[in-house]
Amino acid sequence: MKKIITKNAPLFATAVLALSTLFTASHANSVENIQKQNLDIPLELKVPSDDFSVAARNGFSLGQSQEMAYDPIQKKLNPLTIPLLLKSKSGEIKASLNGDIKLINDLDPTKSIEMKASIGNVELKSTKSQDIGEKERNKIGSAVNLVISAKVPGEVAKLTSGYYQGTVSIMFEGDIAKA
Q: Taking a C-beta distance cutoff of 8 angstroms, is the pair 143, 132 a contact?
């Protein structure tokens, strides 16, 4: 029996080597066929100050463009309502426009519609800051609506077709020294 094992040892070693090479080659091919994809997910976290903050509620992103809804049958512009959360340790929050609001036609800048913005029942002005929200509620966090609409609703019917755009710029102020 010892003669048979010794006589066939080179053959056995060759068979083991061939099998191991075959296994390694097939394993290498499966590694080469693997595809990879990287996924980057940008994350943001904004923790508002306990002293003063103004933020959108219900998933609105104030930094993104908001589309105004035009009703072509009634030829009117539906108001855009953005829910806000106001908070001021002193309870005092004032707001004003940083300029007039206009939606201007991209192709013909002479075509435009004047807009207005209100928070709660206070129409914002560019000439002076106005108190908004209720002081006691603002101390704990007050939910109010920012409503953007046509200044003169009848003027919307006179607009020519096209793409109109503009910006609403609002300055919020809170006196944290009084807190």
A: no
- Rounded CA-CA distance 150/118 in Å is 11
Q: Which residues of 21-49 are buried (b: 16+ CB within 10 A; e: fewer)?
A: eeeeeeeeeeeeeeeeeeeeeeeeeeeee
Query: Which one, of 121, 130, 119, lies nearest residue 93 by Cα?
Result: 130
What is d(CA 46, CA 49) in angstroms, rounded to the nearest whole number? Answer: 9
Q: Which pTM value belongs to this model? A: 0.71
The fold of 57-174 is Immunoglobulin-like (2.60.40)
Find all residues with CB under 8 Å of 177, minimum gap 6, and list them.
90
- Phi, psi (5° rounding) for residue 30? -70, -30
Task: Name which of 4-8, 36-40, 143-147 the model is least confident about.
Answer: 4-8
User: What are the CA-CA distances from residue 11 to residues 8, 17, 121 (Å)?
Assistant: 5, 10, 96
**How many helices and strands in the chain, by DSSP H and E?**
2, 12
**pLDDT the model gives residue 122:** 95
Token couple for 133: 């929200």
Domain boundaries, given as residue ranges, for the chain: 57-174
Number of Cβ atoms within 10 Å of the Cβ of 174:
23
